[in-house]
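Hi Q.,

Before the meeting this afternoon, I wanted you to have the zinc ion prediction in hand. No need to reply - just skim if you have a minute. The sequence and ligand are here:
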Amino acid sequence: MYTKIAIIGGTGMGQLLGSGKIKCVNTPYGPASIHEMSVDGKEILFVDRHHLEPKHEGDSVIFRLPHQLNHKAYMYALHNAGVEFVIAASAVGGINGPNDINGLRVGSIVMPEDFVDLSGGPYTFAREGGLVHEEAFHRSPVDMLCSKLRSLVEHHVDCPRGILSCVKGPRYETPAEVRVLRDQYHANFLGMTTAVPEVVLAREASMHYFLFGTVTNMPLEGPPADGADVKKAIKQAQDRLIKIINPLIHILANAAPEFKCQCISSPSVFELCK
Ligand SMILES: [Zn+2]
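Predicted structure with the ligand bound:
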């Protein structure tokens, strides 16, 4: 199956997008579960990032926490399948104030424009040890979250800019840590080790990548929201997200082969290191 579009999301998102079948792919970095799906007649790939299909029939699906994700396996699998565009979705915490961004609340849909990686990384396809082509890892860190893709949907989201911080997880940040992320790193969105490793690897694999964040908590604003309210807000946001993503799939499926933007300016690591 050839498709140039992949969506990476969380639990339940695949079923909302459409129907398909799961393929277990072996990569040099380990196994990955890739869903081949049809969305309104367009073929796409979907990764449910926290779930890995078992090797043996009858075994349970493996659930992985953010710090346990095998980003290299599923990003390699997408690259190897010929994917050019990666649309990711992830839950984030929200912080009003930095970068003159206000009005964030539980349920807001956002699109970060840049990130601060505090996860401890590194995440790279460049070989550990041995020689690699210098250009393979000395890549521009500008426009990591593809601005051309973001511009196609920015009018549909609550906040099309802002800074995403990435910490290892899986626990939430303490109030003291959130204040440091706000005051020293000017972070608007709090994420764990999910989207940032993906975008770094996507850049090395020459795939356009951007992220829809759904705000699921506002750690500095009063007591934690009631669990039922949060669930309802997330469900509403997810329904909205699907309505944004579906037309985007059609736009990208019909995009000219020469779709170009400044985020991809050199061949992939795999081409350079052949
Ligand atoms: Zn791009």
